[in-house]
Write a structure and sequence with these properties.
single chain, OB fold (Dihydrolipoamide Acetyltransferase, E2P), about 150 residues
């Protein structure tokens, strides 16, 4: 029994010794000379955003861009609240039992939510209406809804 344990101990010691030697050899190989230089590790980004290993050609004339022309964010959508004229649309859906509906704009492809409390005239589905819009908590809402004069 004791003999098997001592054999295993010797084998484990040999493995540890061989790992130490491998580690020492790798360390000496790294010290002897770097395999990659700094120039090999540098990457460049061209004008199209592609990563390359060749430096850019500095002799080419570059286009000057004014600082004011750079937009960091998306352009703001024009505020529809500033329109003084009433918009024209068609009642796309109206649930009279719940008191809400949607108006589809005639000149835009937008739909606006409305509540019965914002109606001036009583409307139903398919009616052509004039309305104004305001920004609500969940988007743009139609208010001051009245039947269009024909």
């Amino acid at each position: 029994m004791a003999r098997a344990n001592s054999f295993n101990k010797r084998e484990l010691e040999k493995k540890k010794q061989s790992k130490r030697q491998e580690k020492q050899q790798k360390k000496e190989a790294r010290k002897s000379g770097p395999t990659a230089t700094l120039d090999d590790m540098i990457a460049y980004v061209d004008e199209n955003g592609m990563i390359t290993d060749t430096p850019p050609d500095m002799t080419l004339k570059k286009e000057e861009i004014a600082l004011e022309d750079i937009a960091v964010s998306t352009p703001k959508k024009e505020d529809l609240e500033d329109d003084d004229t009433a918009l024209v649309g068609k009642v796309d859906f109206y649930d009279s039992s719940r008191g809400y509906g949607f108006i589809k704009s005639m000149d835009r492809s937008d739909k606006y939510f409305f509540h019965r409390s914002s109606m001036i005239d009583e409307v139903g589905e398919g009616d052509i209406v004039n309305y104004e819009i305001i920004r609500g908590t969940k988007g743009m809402n139609a208010i001051d809804i009245k039947l269009a004069q024909e």
